[in-house]
Request: fold
Amino acid sequence: MTAAAPDTAAPGTTAPGTATPHAAVPDPGRSPGEVTTAVPFTGGRTGDAPLTWGQRAIWHAIGRTAPNDHYFNIGRVLPLADRGAPVELPRLTGALAALLVRHEALRTRIVAGEEGEPRQHLHAEGLVEVSLHDVLDPAEAGAAAENLLSSLSSRRFDYAREWPVRFGAIRHEGRITHVVLALCHLATDGHGAEILVRDLRLLVRRGSAGPACAETPLGLARHQASPAGRRSGRAALTHWEKGLRQAPPTMFPNPVAAPRTPRFWTGRLVSAALPRAVEAVAATHRVSGSTVLLTASAALVAADQGHSIAAVMPIAGNRAAQDHRTLVSTLSQDALFILRMDEVPGPDAVFTDLLAGAWPAALAGYRAAAYDPCGWDALLDRASRERGAEVHPYCCFNDMRLAERATATGTASAPCASELAALRRRSVLDLPATQDRVACRYCLHVSGDDGALTVTLTADTAYLPPAAIHAHLRAIEEVVVSSWADTPPLLAALPGLLAAEGSGR
Reply:
């Protein structure tokens, strides 16, 4: 990351078209040392449109998950004490007001249209609150920011009455050290959240973030409702229809245990071995690292349930188009990945034999990941009637690492035994969270960097009890790391690997 440019605006100035903030006032409902300040914004346009396909997909998921739909909230923390000139409150509030004018998604609410159908309504002006927390010790600022993020993100949004963003800030001796953003998933996805953080840093440091994205959520919604947009959506659903016909109706057809209370548990693996292993296997087989992890998880799900074909729904960013790359909106939707394990038959087939076919299958799925969710629902209903069983994979994969990674080329040397053992000893496995309701049975998330990958699996304990959740996480690490060490597991051995990992080996 390059260093921030020197400040070009005087401290305390606000962006054009914005107003100065109201005075910060104590809030009796908040913790000691925390106040709120109201930031007015004006200067944008107003408008109304249907939901985009991405918004509609999240809206449907919210309906299936409520009242626990805070599960979909997105959080980010922007440190401001690490570089550049000190930032005081007036400079921050001016930058926040400019951010709201720049990105229409932040001032859009979801309202009921005719016949109760949800619509997005863009506001030209308004007030947004900033929760301001003062710390006495600068060493505590980072932890205070994470605590504030947890507080702001842990409540569901009021979609019709509340702005889809909550701002917070940590201050030490009058200077802002961290800015906190809790975002409603109807406003943006993870990629859009990173754009917001980038633009906010530029607005704070330079007073400008450059030209705004020409596309807008309203414009996207209107295109998707056009004849050209509908044709594109129908073509994507044709891919889904063909893929679902190949696969079992669902990946987890039968409960195996009494559900726990709360019903959904999250397991977490933090692995120092996985980053190097993933990239090395990807380089050797000329695929992406994300495809390696997607294939490993899909193969293990199939092995666990006795399937020869796996259907997994990876999250697609849908940002290949140039005018979508810097758009703050919810573009991500489910793709369909079909893994044909039966295409590499024989007792000697190993995990890495799957990768040659997995790469084009993943690309095909990502290309067909923008569609009208209403048409998708109708497709699944029709398929369920035809097959006499509910058709839905109930198996999701989300690689949340946002850095663009080209398909790896070349080869990488295998690790020595002592190096591999040292990395594996650093792995941490736990069960950090539970929830009452999630609209899936298997939801795998990948995050982290070159130092360690964090893989979390949120699952329905009626289908994957806690021990099975841990077994899948450990097995993913084992499959990929063993492949890095030039000893990829036999496909026939995957069920036994899950059983061994589940036994606590």
About this structure: The CA atoms of residues 339 and 358 lie 6 Å apart. Residues 226-247+259-502 form a domain with the Chloramphenicol Acetyltransferase fold (CATH 3.30.559.30).
